[in-house]
Amino acid sequence: MTDSANASHQAFVAACRDAIGAAHVLTDAHDTASYLTDWRGRYNGAACAVLRPANTQEVASVVRLAVEHRVALVPQGGNTGLAGGATPDTSGAQAVVSLGRLNRVRALDPHNNTITVEAGVILADVQTRAQEADRLFPLSLAAEGSCTIGGNLATNAGGTGVLRYGNARELCLGLEVVTPQGEIWDGLRGLRKDNTGYDLRDLFIGAEGTLGIITAAVMKLHPQPAARVTALAALESPHAALDFLSLTQRFTGPLLTGFELMSEFCLRLVGKHFPQLRYPFDAPHGQIVLLELSDSESEAHARAIFERLMETALDEGLVADAVVAENLAQSRAFWDLREHIPLAQAEEGLNIKHDIAVPISRIGAFIDETDAAIALAIPGVRMVTFGHLGDGNLHYNVQAPEGGDARAFLAQHQTPINRIVYDSVHKHGGSISAEHGLGQLKIDEAAHYKSPVEVRLMQAVKAALDPLGLMNPGKVLR
């Protein structure tokens, strides 16, 4: 950084102290460290300051000061992202804007089935506040105890309930946003119909803070189900799982809220590192499906549907074995198997992760073809494939051969494996990022697979809204 640039950044930091209070402008290395590294430890950045505004007006003040002093800003929620979207670069010239102090629930309207929350509210707290009002906020993911609504919206988070309720975009009715000029757009309208022009809300959702900073949102609520019933089904292939999904949807209709696919190796890995979570069947099976119904009538009604479904699936040879949870504890144990897969992977060692989506009908072919291509390129690799089959989102991960040097495996094979996987995703009409966002991890890959027209349209939107390029530069677009 040049002397003049350094002086400008120092002036910016001093002005921020006046605007939001010196206690909330962090510059000491000990205080800023946790904000400068992403959750996976993949990216480590530097910042001239970490700013912690308390409300929307203070966020707007910070943005106006950034424009005045030409300082780039990196918005950050719970810092649980998996693509490096909330980590500054290594120049030390950017400032992190942490939204953790914007943590108020502004309103809860049970008749409109909405809750208005600030960007720094923890996802689990939104779920709790909804439950206290006998409502359901259905967005649910592994990081819900620490991720924030602002981050969920910035990445258009998915999770386990997308099949029935949709992802973060479908759950949001309105936004409050601080623009790159430091103006406040109040779009906090709890309307389900509003045809009055361009849909600005959807423009900011999924933009990862590159077009403005989300400071609050109106989110949809749903009635609490009278009962939830969970089951595990054992099948021999992803193709059988697709047929079973179609059968399940025919039997259950809108009651189906979860349909998770897990390879047998995934669950063996969980059992290896978490012995208390045992493999649920006596014999091995190629694939396991975790499915859940949410019923507005009764548990008995949901269980009766499940029993008819499983009987038909067994008779037709789609399912080799099945077990229905008898109580809440057993249901929780089933979900623990699914949720411990990423933890077991981490215990097993470094691996190459992919968060991809393909049309549901193509999942079987994608897995067959891509598994074969990777095995041919690198014999001995272990495939850890799991995800939200009901909405076409797979976590398609590649573990190093057993006993090998995982770090060397990553260094040598990550790029060629990514190319195999992403080429296959593209061939099957999919997306290289389903719910984690692009961040800085997939920025070049996205440009490679998007059409030139699509890239130019995105660049035009960015240039129109953020002409100075100060909003989270180096993310989503170059």
From TrEMBL:
Keywords: FAD, Flavoprotein. GO terms for molecular function: catalytic activity; FAD binding. Its cofactor is FAD. Pfam families: FAD-oxidase_C (PF02913), FAD_binding_4 (PF01565). The keyword ATP-binding does not apply. The keyword Oxidoreductase does not apply. InterPro entries: FAD-bd_oxidored_4_C, FAD-bd_PCMH, FAD-bd_PCMH-like_sf, FAD-bd_PCMH_sub1, FAD-bd_PCMH_sub2, FAD-linked_Oxase-like_C, FAD-oxidored/transferase_4, Oxid_FAD_bind_N. Residues 43-224 form the FAD-binding PCMH-type domain. GO terms for biological process: respiratory electron transport chain. Belongs to the FAD-binding oxidoreductase/transferase type 4 family. This is FAD-binding oxidoreductase. It comes from Trinickia violacea.
